């Protein structure tokens, strides 16, 4: 670009900045004015109310009018404040790109400047910047120079891109501008990628790639499946997609109508900065485990995926592990899901188990009566309707009982010489005493405490003949070691604990018998790390969000617990209906340098394809230490050097949490200021972090130090994907530490792809 052109760009930036400043001033003034009007009016209202508390009808009318004025002022103040904030956010860098789009049939192209939000010059009505989510802005992401088109509500617009330019503007200064052809300029992308990993994820709107844009803007498909390599931007896409949906459907969809299922608290916090950065509110975030555990209830403790991972990784008894893995494989299968669905149907006809509704030791309504109601009086209705009607009847019975019991207690108090008081006092006392317990009972009844779902589940496990009948009716095969599997689950349940693999069955029995607690207002559900969900969990999600569209993002290469996750997307299509699903495959990976990518790709010879962007760094290093003490010293030394070098986050990733505790203690003893992360942590933070492998999923760090990548630690073939996932967390530096021989995963990798230090 020549100097004249550059100068013109600088002048334009100045002009745009001046308009923004002017608008900012005006909105600031409006905001201040509204605020002072509100204060004034509030004072006035207050005086009116306090001076004349017995307000006449007339002054009541005036009061109500003034309240309306106050509400209007408040709304206007909120608007002014939002505008002020948006302009303030735009001021340092109002736009990042420009396209000159010439509509078909027109001779001149119109320059369009694209930014995080639209800013309109009120005097001329022209767009100074156009929101990146606007239809025309999509051209910037989708096309190079030449023919282009985009969709508008009025139809397709065709034309030509005559110019495509990118800018870096910081603090209102144009640092550089470059014209790009086909791809979005590699220079700026490279620069984005070479930055340090933050404590929070950042938006990628300035460099969204064409294949990513297709996912972000697809609003035709009811179910989007995105298979994307590690670092291909799945999480980024999910968040930019939320921002896009909030923009496009702003009249109908607000942030509370969108739910993101994330793997854990740490991840939820990590992604929580992107939408505010884009000027939008955060969507709701949920984890499947929290939802299930909350619904299953406080009486039963539900094992989460992390506890399961820790248990499996730490298990040294191979037979015990194989037994557990077999349980998980079967219980998360489509066969088991079908058996449970059959059983739920069966319970509508026979076998339901109820609990007595008890006042202290006396039953108000017995389980037997409840059974009679369920299969007799209300048998014609679906189960959840029967239970609702039963609930009403129980509440009536409890209330009648409460009145009788209160009288009984009152008489006892009257006859007991230890209690002195008037009849009214004794009656109040009786009411209070009975009332407390009655309230508890009513609360339990309200939450269907009279339906014993765990007992019904246990019954299915205990009664093998019943189980086989259900399996046969469902067309499902019963594994030969079923007896051992059921014994295992029954042992857990007898300790009021639900194994991970049984939780979905229990959850769904509850949802379906008591009536699904559906999230009807939710319009979009995004599931990140979908490879970690099994078919039954996905089925439950579909049922819970009946009016939502789904975006499911995952990576089969990172299926770290293959027994309880997806190994292909067939089951997803089965659950959601193949005709509703559209699959995208993203193979380009943006996170790691080419050297790290080449190494990690070679760890999974049979894996899904990955193609790194061209960004160079040092080759990964395998550091061989003579013993554990030496390994700690080397890791501590390297971590300190990397941090001193300007890297912001250095993660020591261990195989298990137990290893992480030990590594953390050892590193601290070496003088390293390391911070330990566990699954209860809600903030990632920066500096030197120590965490277990499965917790690092979805996150990224400037440098990853793989703790104890030794032959004796990462042994099992089934942990190959886990090892891969750990290594793919690194942006710039990957170092693996082994005591003696390295793990077979490293030993089998191409030795050209890493350096060895000993
Ligand atoms: N178009 C892009 N421009 C700039 N940076 C990008 C782009 N796409 C992805 N990135 C960056 O690449 C990194 C990986 O992105 P992200 O975490 O979204 O990938 P992912 O597919 O969810 O990864 P994984 O499955 O390995 O957890 C992030 O730092 C993200 O900012």
Describe this structure in words.
There is one protein chain. The mean pLDDT is 92. The two termini are 50 Å apart. This protein is an alpha/beta fold and 758 residues long. Strands 1, 2, 3, 4, 5, 6 and 7 form a seven-stranded mixed β-sheet that branches. Strands 22-23-21-24-25-20-26 form a seven-stranded parallel β-sheet. Helix content is 48%, strand content 18%. It is globular, with a radius of gyration of 32 Å. It has four domains: 88 residues; 240 residues, Rossmann fold, CATH 3.40.50; 95 residues, no CATH class; 164 residues, P-loop containing nucleotide triphosphate hydrolases (Rossmann fold), CATH 3.40.50. The site of adenosine-5'-triphosphate (ATP) has 23 residues, from α4 and α6.
Percentage of residues in strands: 15-25%
What fold name stands as the CATH topology of the largest domain? Rossmann fold
The CATH class of the largest domain, by name, is Alpha Beta
Shape: globular
Helix content: 40-55%
**Could you report the average pLDDT, rounded to the nearest whole number?**
92
Low-confidence stretches: none
Distance between the termini: 50 Å
What bound compounds does this protein have?
adenosine-5'-triphosphate
The main sheet comes to: 7 strands, mixed
Count of individual domains: 4
Number of strands: 26
**Radius of gyration from CA coordinates:** 32 Å
CATH architecture tag of the largest domain: 3-Layer(aba) Sandwich
